[in-house]
Specification:
The chain is mostly helical and about 110 residues long. It is built from 5 helices and no strands. It has a domain at about 40-113: 434 Repressor (Amino-terminal Domain). It has helices spanning about 15-25, 40-60, 65-70, 75-85, 90-100.
Length: about 110
């Protein structure tokens, strides 16, 4: 009886990687992360920073989206929006509440420019 070897998966070539990077860099691409616009308001910047803190927590604690959603008591679709930087559907209050669950001693400082 011959033992069948599993085929070795090859890393994608340079042209495939460039195509994927170009797709993900396109602001109109629906599957990638949302970038903060250059003319973002201070409220948008605050919401974006809160989303980044939540994503940082997920990475540092090696949590799946499901585990993070359970920890924050929200559904996976909402955590996906947060992790992708879709700030339009959240208020600062809501994002701050989620962030406080992960970082109980978080502080906000407001400065006049």
């Amino acid at each position: 009886m011959a033992i069948q070897k599993k085929p070795i998966k090859k890393f994608p070539g340079a042209s495939t990687l460039k195509k994927v990077r170009d797709q993900l860099s396109d602001l109109a691409f629906p599957g990638g992360n949302i970038a903060l616009p250059k003319d973002a308001s201070e409220v948008e910047r605050a919401k974006f920073k809160l989303c980044q803190l939540i994503a940082k927590y997920q990475r540092e604690h090696e949590l799946t989206q499901r585990a993070l959603a359970n920890k924050l008591d929200i559904d996976e679709a909402r955590i996906s929006e947060i992790l992708r930087g879709k700030i339009d559907t959240f208020t600062v209050d809501r994002l701050m509440g989620y962030t406080q669950k992960l970082y109980p001693h978080i502080k906000i400082e407001i400065l006049a420019a």
